[in-house]
Here is the input.
Amino acid sequence: MAMEPQHWRWAPQDSAETCWQAWAMETAAWLKAQGADPRDALIVLPVGAVLSPARQAWMVAVGGWLPRIDTIAAVSEGLVWSWSPDSSAGEAGLPPVTLDAIVDRLQAGRSLGSEAWGKAWAQRDRRGFEFALDQVVAAAHTWVRRMQSIAPAQRAAYLELARATMGGSVTQGPGGREKLLLAWALEWAASTVAGGLLVDPLYELRPSALVVVTAGEAVSPGTEIHLTLGLMAHLAEQGVPVLWRSALGGAEQVGQSRARPPVACACQNAEEEAQQAAAQVIAAVNDARQGNSGQVGLPVALIALDRSLIRRVRAMLEGAGIQMADETGWLLSTTRASAVVTRMLQASHPRASTDDLLDWLKSGWLDWVSGEGEHARPDSVQLSRAVGELESWCRRHGMLGAWGLQVPPAKDQDLSDELAAQIVPTGRQAMPPAAVLLWHWAVHVVAPLQSLWSGKRPSLKEWLLGLLEALSRAGALTTLQGDEAGELALQSLRFDSLNGADQAAGLWAGLSNQTRLDGPSFVRWVGTVLEATTFRPPAPDVPADVVITPMARAVLRPFHAIVLPGADERQLGAMGSQSGWLSSKLCEAMDLATPVTQRAAQWDAFNLLMSRPGVVCLHRHAQGSEPLEPSAWLERWSAQEGVRIEQVGDVREAAGVEVQFVRTPLPTLRDAGWALPEQVTATSYEALRQCPYRFFATSVLGLREQDELEEGLDRSDFGIWLHEVLRNFHAQRQGQLAISTPDEDVQAWLESSQRVIKEMGLDRDSQRPYFLPFQADLDRLARAYVSWLREHEEGGWAMLDAERIEQRELQISDDLKVRLYGQLDRIDVRHHEGARQHLVLDYKTGSLDGLKRKIATPLEDTQLAFYAALSDPQWAVQASYLHLDVQDVKQLDHPDVERSAQVLLEGLARDWTRLHAGEAMPALGEGMACGFCQARGLCRKDHWTMQEEQA
Here is the structure.
C-alpha cells in the first residue's frame, strides 16, 4: 500500500522548539479528527535523540495524556517477551541468523566448514575462507533486515523474487563460488524468516493510531525507518489510522529572510581545517553562553563526517576546556583497554619478539602489587628499573625472541645440550636479578596462552578461558573491569557468556566450545571483535557545550549552532561504492540499500541541517598533494533556496610570540655543584676532554642511547665474548700443574670458547647463524693468540689478574675529591732487573691503524694513561693495547705511560676544579668526536650559524 507523507516544514526563522510544538498541535488535531485516543496512540520517531524535544513539545503545546512517543527499536525490544521462535519451520540443522555479526560468523563457519569442500578450502586458504564468511554473513544480515520491514504473510513473495533474481546468475566460471555462497546466504535468511523474527510482534500491535516522523522522504531499505514505514503500511491495511510526517527544510518562499544564514570557510589543508573548525566551535560556545540567540543552554553541534578530522578537532577542544558529549564514539580496537588484550596476545606467541614483550610490560595496565612465592611480581618501585634492565640486557645481547630463554631447572637436574642453550646466561653476561624476576613472572602470566599456541587447534572457549586466566594473572582483569572501555572489551569478547546461563549465553557457549581455532586465527578473531565494536564514552555530568554527532542524528534537534567540517567533494554528497558481493544491480532488483538510496537520505538530512541558524560548512583546497573542491551540494542547496552561502574569514585568534634568539648551550654547575659526578671512568673523562657538552649529557645528566634490537651480532658482541673466553682460558690454565704444550693451549682455548658460547647463549637458534662467521675463524685466532702468549711469557711475564676492578680516590682540595674507577682487562707481572714490574693490557678487536695513531700521540691517549693512574703507585707500570686478530696478535706499547698518567691526573684535577667552580661545558667537539656522538641531537651543533657560535 503506497503511503504519501505530509510535509512538516522546518522554517529557518523558527526555532526547533517552535517547530516541535507546531508538530505536536497538528498531530493532536489529527488524532482528534480520527477519533483516536491519545493514550493508545503510538508515535514513532527516527532517532532516540529527538525523544526529549518531542515529549516536551507535546506537554507544552498540547498537555493532557501523553501518547507513547518512542523509537521503533525501543518498541520492538519491549515486545520481545511475547515472541518465541518456530522451531519446526526452516531448514533442519541450519541455525537462525541472530544479526550478531560475531555469533553469525561462527555459525556460518561451522555450517560451511562441516562440508567437505568447505573444510578443504579452510585448510588450503584460511584467510580466504574467513573473508568469504564475512561476505556471507553481511549478505544474510542484509536480507533479514530487509524482510523485517515486510509483514510475515508477505515475506514468501519477496523470497520468491529474491530467489528468481539470484537464480538467473550463472554459477560457472569467474565468480561462480561467490554466487553459490550468496544463494546459501539467502536460504539461511529464508530459514531464519520461516522461524520468525524478533520484530514480528510489532505486526500484532493495534494502536488507536500510528504517527511516523521522518527526516525527509528518502528512505534506505533495511534501516529502522524502513521497518517503521513497513509497519505503517501493514497497520493501514488493518484499518488503523496512520500518519506519516516528513520534516523538510527550507523556507516557505524562496529568498525568505534568515536570522543567521549558512556560511562556508575555505581552508588550505586538513590541519588548517581542524583549527578553523575548533575556532568556530569555541566562538559558537562563547556566543551560546552569553545567550545571544535568546536561548540559553543549547549546545553546539559538531557534525562527524570525517572521523580523523574530528579527532583532531576534539583534541583541540579538550585543551580549551570545552565539555563534550561524543555520540559517534570510536572503534574499540583503538582504545587503550583493547591494547591490553592484543598486546598480551602478541606477547604470548612462542615466537614473539622482544619488542612485543616490552610493549606489553610497558602498557601500564598491569597490577604490579608485590606477590609471594615462586611467581612473585615486582612492586611499583622495582617495575621501572626491572623493565629498563630487561630492555637494556636484551638490546645489549641482541635477544630478538621474547621467549628464547628458559627458567633454569633445579641444580640436580641433568640438561641436554639443546635445553642448556636456552638457559638464562650466567657470569658476567648474566641478566640482572630484577629483570630475571620480571621475565619469570611474564613467563608465568602467558603460560595459559602458550600452552594453547602449541596445541592442536584448541576450541574458542579454551582460548577465551586461557586469555581470561592470563589477564587475571597479570592483574589486568581488575583494571579492565574498572574502566568503561575495558568493561566493554570484556563484554564484547563474551567472557561472561561462557557458562551458558541463559538462552543467548547457551548458544554462545555451544558455539565457542565447537569452534576450533589455531593461534593466528584466534588473534584475528579477537581483532575482528574489537574492530566491530564501537566505544562511546559516557556523557559528562555537567551539560555539554558541544555534541559530536553524525548528520543523521543531528537533524530535528535544537542546537545553538552547527559546525560541519569535511564539506568537500569526497565527504559530503559523494556517491559511495557498493561493498560486498551484492552488486548494485542485484540490490536494485531486490529493493536493497544502494549508494543511491543512501545518498538521497543524506541529502534530506543535509537539507534539514542547512535550514537551522548558525551553520558553518568547512572544506579544504587539498588533501595532501591532491586538489579538493567543495561539495557540489553547497551550490545545489544555494540554488534551491535562493540563498547565497557567504565565505567567512579566519576566526582564529592571533597570538604574538616575541622572537628569542637561542644561543649555543653552555651548561654550568655553578648553582648545582652537587650534580658533579663523584666518580669518573676512562670513558667519561675522555668524553670531557673531547667535548665538555658530551660529558654533561652522559655523565652529569646520565643520558644513554638505547641500543636497537637488531637481528644478528656485531663486533662489540664478539668483543664481549672474546674477553670472557680469555678470562676463562687463563683461569683454567693457571690451575694446571704441568706445563702445557702449544697444541694443548690451543685446544684449551677452543674448549674455553665453547663453554662461553653456551654460557652466553650464542648457540641458540636465534643467534647461532650470526655467530658462525666468527666461529669459523676460532682455530686461527686461538693459534695466533697462543703464539703471542708463549712469546710474551718467554719475556718473563705471567698473568696476575683479569677483569680486575680498580678504584683510586684523588683528593683535589680540602672540599673536593673524585674517585677514579675502571675495570682492567688484564694485569701481567714480572721481576726484571731486581724490580717488580706490572703490565696493564687492554684487549682491542677494532682498527689496528686507529690504535697506532693513539700510541703516536701518547698524551692524547686517555684510556691506558687512566688505567696506569689506577695502578698501585709502588708499581713500575707499563701499559699496552693487545690487538686480537686472526691474522696476528700484536702488542702496542704506550711509551712512558707513567708520565702520561701523571699529566692526566694533573689535568683531571684542574678540570674538576673548574667544573666545580661553575665553568661552562660548551660543545667543542670536532671531527670524529662529533661523528659518533650520542648527544649530537641535544647540542644541535649542526644547526648553529657562525654568528651564533661566536656569540
Summary: Residues 667-709+795-951 form a domain with the Lambda Exonuclease; Chain A fold (CATH 3.90.320).
